[in-house]
Amino acid sequence: MVTREEFYVDSADGIHMIHGYRWYDPERKPKAILQIVHGMLEYIDRYDELARYMVSEGYYVIGHDHLGHGDSVSHSSELGYVGKHGAVLWLRDIEQIRKMAAAYMPKLPYIMLGHSMGSYLVRRYLIYHGKKVNGAIIMGTGHQPTALIKAGLLITYATMIRKGTKGQSKLLNHLTCSGFAKQYPDNARTGSWMSRDPQVLLSALKDKKMNYDFTLNAFESLFRTIEEVIDPKRASRMPKTLPLLILSGDEDPVGENGKGIVRFRKMLTKIGMKSISCMMYPGNRHELINDLDKKQVFLDIRDWCDSVVKEV
């Protein structure tokens, strides 16, 4: 039996409310906690199927909508806007949710899973708080060249001068989601950059919580986050023995069809990370938990989490 409870808590800025869910089996003591950190232009409820599966396998699952996403906004006009200190608040909110889960279920092994933008947020979280978790799953990630991220920041700041922090940029959109979509011109019938399942795209196009653009200050927060995690000197602050699992589709444009994953893993090896596992799924695109072989992805996530729990 899976129970899902909705919650609202104060954001780290003390102004906004953060919305989230926790999933658990009230008749069963969980063996570990899994915190899910969602991606750009989406929200935590899209992980409901994975969360319910993991509860059925003995886990307590928690996750929230980031600032500027989902139901962590008071009005749809706030979607995509994260305020002046978005990157800082994203990180603080993740830690706040971790503390909440640990208070509900003390002394349990703790695993964090981040997808897409959430993968970069988890990577940054591990730099500052890596000792507070027992393992991390990095899914749908990449490892962009530093020059590209700096160019993105320059475009962001230049456009801010004309449009302000709440302005938007077609060029920045092209560097991210809209640019990825153009790689699959027949995506209404054959799938999309998100998934090979056409229904995933069709559902997303109808979803009001996914059809908006990032403001310039949100892009700044995103690029600042990526800039930090691709820096080997900063990344080297992660605990070297922390188990990491990297999951990616080999046709995921965020991971440059595998090239970015190779660069990411090389950096992890170079900075001395001791426990790195990596799974590449042939033909899969960006959203592994929504692709045609998602059941295998669920199994792989469970098996790896179980292996981490056994070692704690």
Notable traits:
alpha/beta; Rossmann fold
Measured as a percent range, the helix fraction is 40-55%
Spatial order of the strands forming the largest sheet: 1-2-4-3-5-6-7-8
CATH uppermost class: Alpha Beta
> How large is the radius of gyration?
18 Å
Low-confidence stretches: none
Decide which structural class fits the backbone. Answer: alpha/beta
Counted beta strands? 8
- Percent of sequence in beta strands: 15-25%
* End-to-end C-alpha gap: 26 Å
| Helical run tally | 12
CATH hierarchy: architecture: 3-Layer(aba) Sandwich
Report on the structure:
The chain is built from twelve helices and eight strands. By secondary structure, it is an alpha/beta fold. The chain has a single domain, classed as Rossmann fold, CATH 3.40.50.1820. Strands 1-2-4-3-5-6-7-8 form an eight-stranded mixed β-sheet, with helices on both faces. Helix 2 crosses helix 3, helix 3 crosses helix 9 and helix 4 packs antiparallel against helix 9. The protein is globular and about 55 Å long.
